[in-house]
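Workshop exercise sheet. Pairs work together: one partner reads the sequence aloud, the other fills in the structure field after running the prediction. Swap roles for the next sheet.
Pair: D.N. / O.F.
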Amino acid sequence: MKLPKTLVLGGAIFAVFLLAALASFLWTPYDVQTLTISAKLKTPSAVFWFGTDHFGRDIFSMIMVGARTSIAVAIVAVGIGITLGVPLGLWAASNHGSWLDEVIMRGNDLVFAFPSLVIAILITAVFGPSALNAIIAIGIFNIPVFARISRGGALSIWTLDYILAARVAGKSRFRISLEHILPNIANLLIVQGTIQFSLGILAEAALSYVGLGAQPPTPSWGRMLADSQTLISFAPHLALFPGMAIVLTVLGLNLMGDGLRDILDPKIRRSRE
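Structure field:
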């Protein structure tokens, strides 16, 4: 089967940043925590590929380490959403119309009423700003997203004949959800996972921008944008490169999501054939 162009292009873009993040564990052109005031605000050159910031730190090296921070936060936050949201959605679908279904969905509505930024503010007001608290905030916001997706997909399957046959055979709701429902909604969860992954990177950048995410000296794309805003008029490279990193990473993930949808959605796949 020929892979969609969007999947190939998106995967290639994201792979560049993923490899940069992995490489940063072993190597960066310069130490991101070493301040070299004599080299501050250097423009891009053969020595400093993306230039330096107002502390003389190499921006290319900071982009590499910042990729590690953003991707790690997004992965864990999406993992929290899937781990807690999917079981809640399946549980609600298996008890459709009951008080349990109503409680779970109204709880989801309550979480949706507070965006991740507001949740982060509440958390950091108690525990202080950090990357861990950003993960918790974004992860909490992801739970109702995956709960709604899994519940909606499961409800459409619960009405099928083979599910009725499984119930007649004596299978429990839990076993049916695990053996029959979950495999059939996996395509929805995978596509939604890539979308939430990209939104997680945006959310992490936004939280770091306002000082609620990763704290100095840990590099973060959002923090780099915040530090550049007072110097952007005569050092635009300070904002250009972290901004492009965010844009390209999110673009790559969204293209991957579109490509995965084209492969996994049987209706779209049949129309292409």
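Discussion prompt: The radius of gyration is 22 Å. What would you look at next?
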